[in-house]
Amino acid sequence: MDQTTNKRILVVDDNSEAADISAELLELHGYQTAVAYAGLPGLEAARTFQPDAILLDLGMPGMDGYQVAAALRAVPDFDQVALIAFTAWGDVVTRQRVIDTGFDDHVIKPANLERILAAVRHAMEKREQLLAAAAP
Fold first, then answer.
1. b/e map 118-127, b = 16+ CB within 10 Å
2. What is the model's pLDDT at position 108?
3. Cβ–Cβ contacts within 10 Å for residue 67, how many?
4. Residues 6+ positions from 100 with CB-CB distance below 8 Å
5. I need a surface site. Which of 44, 95, 98, 116 has the fewest CB within 10 A?
6. For the sheet containing 53-56, what is the strand order?
7. Per-residue pLDDT, 136
8. Are 69 and 103 contacting, i.e. CB atoms less than 8 angstroms apart?
9. What number of other Cβ atoms are within 10 A of residue 62's Cβ?
10. 33: pLDDT confidence band, cut at 50, 70 and 90?
11. How far apart are CA 26 and CA 128, in angstroms?
12. pTM of this prediction?
């Protein structure tokens, strides 16, 4: 088991089974987790749960993952939150749009636990480095 401390991960995915399993696996590795099953509830959960990272599905009905990410990136309070796109889409256009929207990493489903854990760690480190570089 990883000694991950008390980092908080929000999982936002309209596939409730996938979201719940992802959250459970992250909890087994020491993370505190919360789950939302759609974009708008995901934004609300980000406000109340205050995660360190968000594992965010892109293809959701209503407010999709790109819209959630753009809304979060538009609010300075969420600058420190690492965003990981978690999607079955891995084409070139999707990859570029993920970067342009402000995600810190991109995981293609299905992904094994090691890949998810590595992406979470990488995204949080990248976000910390970006904030440190931007500090006066």
1. ebbbebbeeb
2. 94
3. 17
4. none
5. 44
6. 32-36, 8-12, 53-56, 82-87, 105-108
7. 81
8. yes
9. 10
10. very high
11. 20
12. 0.93
What's the whole-number average pLDDT of the chain?
93
* The total number of residues written for the chain in this structure: 136
Q: On the CB side of 91, how many CA atoms lie within 13 Å of its CA?
A: 4
Give the max Cα distance, the chain: 43
- The verdict on whether omega for the bond into residue 41 sits within 30 degrees of 0, i.e. cis, is no
Specify the CATH superfamily of domain 8-134. Response regulator (3.40.50.2300)
Q: Alpha helix (H) ranges present in the chain?
A: 16-28, 39-49, 65-73, 92-101, 113-134
Express each pLDDT in 58-96 by its tens digit. 999 999 999 999 999 999 999 999 999 999 999 999 999
CB of 57 closer than 8 Å to CB of 110: no
- Four-CA torsion 37, 43, 48, 54, nearest 10 degrees: 70
